[in-house]
Structures are given as C-alpha cells and as structure tokens.
Write a structure and sequence with these properties.
The protein has about 280 residues and is an all-alpha fold. It is built from 17 helices and no strands. It has three domains: about 80 residues; about 60 residues, no CATH class; about 120 residues, no CATH class. Helix 1 packs antiparallel against helix 2, helix 4 packs parallel to helix 7 and helix 7 runs parallel beside helix 9. This is HEAT repeat domain-containing protein.
C-alpha cells in the first residue's frame, strides 16, 4: 500500500527529528504532522487488519512523542471520541497509548466519560494498560479536586465500587483498591472521605468475618497487597490506619489462621515491603 508506506516513511523522519529537537520545535513538528495526517487518519491505519508489529510500534512511538506536546494535548481534547475508541483496540499497545493520553487530559477536562473509560481499563488483560490507568487516575485526582470528587463520590464512584465488590475478579478488586489507596494519599481530605466510603467499608467488614474463611482470606490477600504496595508515606499511613484494627483482630483468630496459615505479612503494617503490589504500579 503506497499511501501507507509514504505515511510510515514520514513518521520515521518525524521520529528522528523529534528525538533531537527542543520542546518548542517538537510542538511545531507535531502541529505540522497532524495538519498533514489528522488523528482520524492514524485511527484508520491502526484499525487495519494484520498490520505488522514493527509498523505498529513506529506509529505508537510517534504518537507518544507528539501527543505529549501542547499541540498534541489540544488535539486529544478536540478528538476525545477517537481516543475513547482507541482504548478499546484489540492491540494492547494502542490501548496503552490511548490510556496514557486520556489520563493526560483528564485533569483539564474533568470529563466523566474519560474517567469512566479509565476505570474500565483497570480490568484490562494487559498489566501495562491497567498500570497506566491507575497512575493516570491517581495523578489526575492529585491535580484536580473535581476529578477526585468524580471518582470518590461522584458519577464514577458506582463503577469503581462495582469493581471492588466481593464477587468481582480478584485482580480487578486488587487494582480497584490499589487505586483507592493512591487516591487516599492525595490529601488528608481525600483519605478521610475514602475511609468512610462504600469502597473501603465492605473490605474492612470482610476482614472481620473470621467465621467465613474464604471471604476473609480473599480480603486479607487484597489488604496484604495494599500494604506491600504502599510506598508513598501518605499511602502507608492511610493503609495502616484503615487496616490495622481488623488485621490485629485476625491475628488472634483461629478461623483466620486456618484460612491463611501465614499472617506474618500483616505484622509489618505501616512499613513498605516492596516496590510493587503486583497488580499495579509502584507508588
């Protein structure tokens, strides 16, 4: 396909120039590129069946370079629909890129549709996509109180709550709670709001159900992952404050010991024990 080959050659030259130029020059190059090839053209190319991995990687790399510029961010805001379609792409590289770009514009847009799409990305089969969603939502909430409100008690809260409920896939629950811990670390007000929210209360309740070993064990596993992943001091303190009482109760519970023979992980509550909780990004 001659047109595609010409497009890819143009991208190759642009990528080389972008790697050498200043920020202002990169903004100019991005504007030039998108004037000649609108974002809708990129979307059509990415939707082509059987596109080679090397070509896909070139397109992804150039988009990553150009969409981080001022011109690129404006373009994403003007073409939210395209980005929302891309986050559903069968190609994980495209989903990851779309997740990163939607995260970048969320603090400015405070768009419910973007926040909702990023919450859905927590369930992605690719860990990189889910990681980008957790990081993006947490950073957007840190930068914008309106985004935090959307997630904690606004229109997007029920979707996050649904993912965190007992009965959801274990990895989805763990990611939802990993995001919750990061949100709580954004401010004392956020921590206080989340402690009493419908997100955390059910998990604490499950931890106290020593007479239901399976439910208790599942909740304990999530709590332990949060403890392991809480590397930011604010997150460490919040996780410790929320989970210390029920975990201390469990340490003396024979039913809990039968469900989970080794509860030693709970002993280190309040101290980070590793760089990553296994289901999301390091703090």
């Amino acid at each position: 396909m001659e047109t595609l080959d010409s497009f890819l050659a143009h991208l190759g030259r642009t990528s080389e120039r972008l790697s050498l130029c200043s920020t202002s020059e990169a903004d100019h190059l991005a504007a030039e590129l998108f004037y000649e090839y609108p974002l809708s053209y990129f979307a059509r190319v990415l939707a082509l069946p059987g596109i080679e991995a090397s070509k896909l990687e070139l397109i992804r790399r150039v988009l990553q370079q150009t969409l981080r510029t001022s011109a690129g961010k404006r373009l994403v805001l003007e073409n939210i629909g395209i980005a929302l379609v891309a986050v559903q792409s069968p190609e994980y590289q495209v989903r990851r890129l779309a997740t990163e770009q939607l995260s970048a514009v969320l603090p400015q847009s405070c768009d419910e549709g973007i926040a909702s799409a990023l919450i859905e990305a927590l369930a992605d089969s690719d860990v990189g996509v889910a990681t980008a969603a957790i990081q993006g939502l947490a950073e957007a909430a840190r930068l914008s109180p309106e985004v935090l409100k959307l997630l904690a008690c606004g229109p997007c809260a029920p979707k996050l709550l649904s993912m965190a409920r007992p009965g959801s896939r274990a990895v989805e629950r763990a990611r939802a709670f990993a995001l919750t811990a990061k949100l709580a670390a954004t401010s004392p007000e956020a921590a206080a709001a989340l402690e009493s929210s419908d997100l955390i209360a059910p998990l604490v309740s499950e931890l106290r159900q020593a007479d239901d070993p399976l439910s208790c064990a599942a909740a304990l596993e999530i709590a332990d992952e949060l403890i392991s992943g809480a590397c930011v001091p604010e997150a460490v303190r919040w996780v410790g404050r929320v989970f210390s009482p029920p975990l201390q109760e469990l340490l003396g519970s024979e039913a809990a010991e039968r469900a989970v023979p080794d509860l030693s992980g709970a002993q280190g509550l309040g101290e980070p024990r590793g760089p990553n909780c296994g289901v999301g990004p390091a703090c």
